[in-house]
Design goal:
Layout (H helix, E strand, L loop, with lengths): L1 H4 L9 E6 L7 H14 L4 E6 L1 H5 L8 H16 L6 E5 L4 H10 L5 H6 L1 H10 L7 H4 L1 H11 L4 E4 L4 H18 L12 E4 L28 H9 L20 H9 L3 H13 L12 H27 L2 H29 L7
Parallel strand pairs: 1-2, 2-3, 4-5
The protein binds tryptophan (TRP).
Length: 356
Amino acid sequence: MSELISPQDNSNRKRILTGDRPTGKLHLGHYVGSLANRVQLQDEYETYILIADVQALTDNFETPEMLRANIREVVLDYLAVGLDPKKCAFVVQSLIPEIADLTVFYLNLVSVARLQRNPTVKDEMQQKGYGDNVTAGFLCYPISQVADITAFGAHLVPVGEDQRPMIEQTQEIVDKFNRLYGDESEDGILVRPEGMYAEFGRLPGTDGSAKMSKSVGNVINLADDEKTVTQKVMGMYTDPNRLTGREPGNVAGNPVFTYHDAFNPDKARVAELKELYARGGENDLGKPLLGDVQVKRELAVALNAFLEPIRTRREEYSRDDSFVWDVVRDGTSRGRARAGEVMERVRGAMKIDYFI
Ligand code: TRP
């Protein structure tokens, strides 16, 4: 196996850990929020990408069978966007018992009140209507995420803006752990990670809501075919006050323009579109100077051009199922080796390395 993948030489590199829940195919929001950074950084860092099936179970425990198919989909998305299995270890979370062990230790270092204050968890609880019936598993998933990050000794965590509270929680627990169990002479047993937030911030949904979210159904998937992408773009939310296309339109906060900014390489044309849209009015023929339909058509073209090579690569990899699972098996075993080293240090620091 290791001959097949033969990882790059990682001695002296700093480490990255990041991950995704395998609840469906990845979408443009994932790309902008994190995948693009990962592709950029994979040459420089020892990179671990966690397929967070345990975290996915916290709100999908009634349908565990959906995880298997989605692990495959997510790995296909990784390969398709150019994450290289020689440089990145794709690790299945539930196959790393050290993460579960660390989670249990860390749960003692956080109060229930602190967990209840996590703004991302609060939003999700509200969206799902959990109220007081929230499970312990769901409320505690940020601590499991702290374990994800620290189990690999990650220095850097490239994520979307919505994950900022998880990084802050990680820093708090790392500081507390190192203070409690660290030796004064050392830098710290656990590595204190930094978050890396996408330059572009958060990509809105096609419906104009704050973020793309599979459960809301406002996403464009990396695997969507050309027709689907065009359809989704043509149905996008724009400035609702532009009834005839002659009204001066709103560019700021208009998702169609946000997507143009993120994916249309022709910046001059985007600037022109924005200018005409904001101006409004008619041309010589008495037609709107720039209708929303035109803006969307050009967006669909730009998006399809961006997605085409990704789709082609995805299609190629999807014909070789055994390669996909080999990549996962190999990445997971590299992940386990790393987590095992960290765990040994943790047990030593906590003086629970009884007879190792
Ligand atoms: N919570 C992340 C998300 O929903 C996924 C995730 C799980 C993750 N473990 C992680 C991200 C560790 C970064 C680091 O997208």
